[in-house]
Amino acid sequence: MVTYLCVTPLRRCRRPTIAPPRSPPTGRVAASDVRSGSPRAWAAAVRPRSLPAAVSPVLAGVALGFQRTGAVDALAVLLMLAAALLMQVITNLQNDVGFTLRGGERGGTRTGLPRASANGWLAVGQIRRAILVCALAAAALGVALVAWRGWPVLLIGSASLLAALAYMGGPRPIAYTPWGEATVFVFFGLVAVNGTDWVLTGGWAFTTVLASMSLGALAAAALAVNNHRDIDHDRRIGRRTFAVSFGTRASTALYTALLLGAFAPVPALSLATGTPALLLPLLLWPAAWRLRRSFIACRPGLAYNEVLFRTFRLELWFSVLLAAGALLARFAR
């Protein structure tokens, strides 16, 4: 996580350079470099660089709940953060094994990050057992939160777990439809932020709803990069993502709308609370604009992976500044 907290220059994407003979290009790992069952193999399946998408909404929900009530339960925060991370890990593991089983790696044309099961680094059975362990752990955390806050937590947790599994599971996975970005917007934005606030405070406010829209948009923007990058490969294997269904122009417009639209609720947040401190996320607007330019300038292929990681980092920094603004507003009373 320390990596994501480092401020890195936001540059325009450039044509990927040819890597030295013994080093795979950015975003790829030579199969011979990863031992079966090794930590690197599990890292490829878990995808730790995507975890800001789980941390950011919890951070925003905690801060806004505290700003409104002045109280926070540290144990509940830790339980919710652990549950959110487990949901992200379950989603990533399910994606890894699901794409492999459905033949999503065939053709050798995908330019995304390597999948552990497709490369033989982890067996399908190993990943499925890991999913079961993570699901049981998430359920245990959920039981503790249900005992504290009541049955609505059970609905939130169950819906989130089903969405994580259904993204690449079942007869018609969400990942094979144009609804991937919408699903991420709902569960990594609306549900995650408002659910966090509700578990902590027993309610939520208009400000939390506004923040959930911003965080959901940025999380969905990251998926939009992923699907835009793989549009040609996805079309060949029968995935009907938004990018495949509506084309590259629409996909570019979607990324722009999600990335820049995330800043639209910020002034309303400030007005609703009567504090300028909640305008802090607007400091990231120039970075978001440069990121959009990088997305448009990228050539097809591995260069999009850098844009993907930068989008994750932007989301994390957005939640950090939002949380800082909420804390300043609270202590300024």
Structural description of this entry:
By secondary structure, the chain is mostly helical. The protein has one domain (35-331): Farnesyl Diphosphate Synthase (Orthogonal Bundle). It has helices at 39-46, 52-69, 74-101, 124-149, 151-166, 180-201, 206-229, 231-237, 242-246, 248-261, 265-273, 285-297, 303-331. Helix 6 (180-201) packs antiparallel against helix 7 and helix 12 (285-297) runs antiparallel to helix 13 (303-331). The longest helix has 29 residues, at 303-331.
Q: What amount of the residues lies in strands?
A: under 5%
Number of strands: 0
Please report the first level of CATH classification, the CATH class: Mainly Alpha
CA radius of gyration is 20 Å
CATH topology: Farnesyl Diphosphate Synthase
The structure class reads mainly alpha
- Tell me the helix content: 55-70%
- Globally, the shape reads globular
Give the topology string: H per helix, E per strand.
HHHHHHHHHHHHH
Task: Note the main sheet.
Answer: none
N-to-C terminal Cα separation, in Å?
32 Å
CATH level-two architecture: Orthogonal Bundle
Number of discrete domains: 1
Give average pLDDT, whole number.
Answer: 86
Number of helices: 13
